[in-house]
Amino acid sequence: MENVVELKNVTKKFKDFSVKPIDLQVKQGFITGFIGENGAGKSTTIKMMMNLLRPDAGEIKVFGLDYRTHEKAIKQRIGFVYDGNVFFEGLNLKDIKRIVAPAYQRWDDALFYQYVEKFQLPLNKAMKTFSKGMQMKASLAVALSHHAELIIMDEPTAGLDPIFRRELLGLLQELMIDGDRTIFFSTHITTDLDRIADYIAFMQGGNLVFNQSVHDVAENYALVKGGLDLLDRDTEQAFVHVQRASTGFEALTDNIQAVKDIFGDTVLMERASLEDIMYYSKGGVSHV
């Protein structure tokens, strides 16, 4: 099975926002970073992946199965880590284990206690006493203790201090060593993905702009700088968006070869970061 998750022509319409028809594949055994500014449609897409929202149209398959006939089997194999505490605040970790464990056929008590020790989590303190980082670790410990094959993380690093964010990212890299897990990591903090992601899916205004390997993103996207005299209606077709200043222009391209063909060595090209791509894409639509 190459794709753990497949969305085909999926749409969802709300009163003031809609997710346009999207085709998204999440490849097995890799970390896919799901980027986009707040309100881009990331959480809506994740909720549809988890069958917490029903799409208006299109087809969703997880592990090759559809929710209509295999919801319980699918959810046995998914672990979800959310931005914030998803457990009742008065419960401690022992209470949570007692409630959650019977719901999963593959729950592993020994593994749960192993992660509790690894993450240095208190078993008998109420969740409301946990810091945000500890709440994140608790959610991850529960997700991993039933041998989840797909870990879905919705803005897991939002509000965390830089030291803990780095610790969490290192932990996710460790989890991927055996090649059995797939992680789908939604964030608007793109620097988190520079170290760990294999694929990047980019949402903007309800559209899926691209879903590419990090290698392909680096090969296709670049920042281009040059003099204003180089710009006209034809040459600007090589760019996703152009920003002008008195000293010249800076632009994002998704077609490096076209820029080379048009401008030769009269412009300067630099690697575009994910943050650059998000920022400049707000001003235009990708030609891909």
UniProtKB/TrEMBL annotation:
Entry-linked Gene3D superfamilies: P-loop containing nucleotide triphosphate hydrolases
Domain ABC transporter residues, every copy: 5-230
PROSITE patterns tied to this protein: ABC_TRANSPORTER_1, ABC_TRANSPORTER_2
InterPro entries: AAA+_ATPase, ABC_transporter-like_ATP-bd, ABC_transporter-like_CS, ABC_Transporter_VariousFunc, P-loop_NTPase
Molecular function GO labels: ATP binding
Pfam families: ABC_tran
Keyword Lyase found: no
Alphabetic keyword roster: ATP-binding, Nucleotide-binding, Transport
PANTHER family linked: ABC TRANSPORTER ATP-BINDING COMPONENT, ABC TRANSPORTER ATP-BINDING PROTEIN ALBC-RELATED
Protein name: ABC transporter, ATP-binding protein
Taxonomic source organism: Bacillus badius
